[in-house]
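This part of the workshop introduces the protein records we will be handling. A record pairs a protein's sequence with a compact description of its fold. As an example, a complete record with its sequence and its structure tokens follows.

_____
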Amino acid sequence: MRLHGGLHSGYTQKVRIALAEKGLVERVSFVLVTKEERRGPAHRARHPLGLVPVLELDDGSFLTESTPIIEYLDALFPDPPLIPTEPLRRARMHALDHYHDQALTPPVRRLWPPVTADAAVVAAAKAEVATAFRHLERLLGDQPYLVGEFSLADIAFMPRLQMLPELGLDVPRDCARVGAWCERLAARPSWGATALPPLPTP
């Protein structure tokens, strides 16, 4: 199998983290697809919308979208599990995966790559990020991870969390649980194994 993706694509990074968690980095090779190549016919044959990541299977077919890719890999290689078996935990995992896409990804994209932008736009994006963290603070409670056990829900947030220093963002001081959760995630070997290179200069 091969993973086609972008070097600074958060959704590619999500799959790369899952691969590292499962010890599959050497088994599933990474193929860099540049932004220019994504518009070309070769990649459009893999994904009709020209998006990444795409998992190329051994039979030559393709699987798109980060969450289905991770679920497929988790079914093939169930140890360690990334998808909860308990129905409510699994449903909450999916809800948080979707929440990440809707609440955190849009403001982060408005802040990246770092550019000289309208101060009000930057302030509004940072406020949205802080609001998302405060929601996670309430959800975490005394749990070590978002649905109790480490899962795809946590992996969904890790790529954006890895970018915070370069974006000039911090976890709000009133979100101590989120801060401790971020420290736990950063201590996982998969975090260091998938550390993003510096963001490109605009």
Notes: The first strand starts at residue 2 and ends at 5. The radius of gyration is 17 Å.
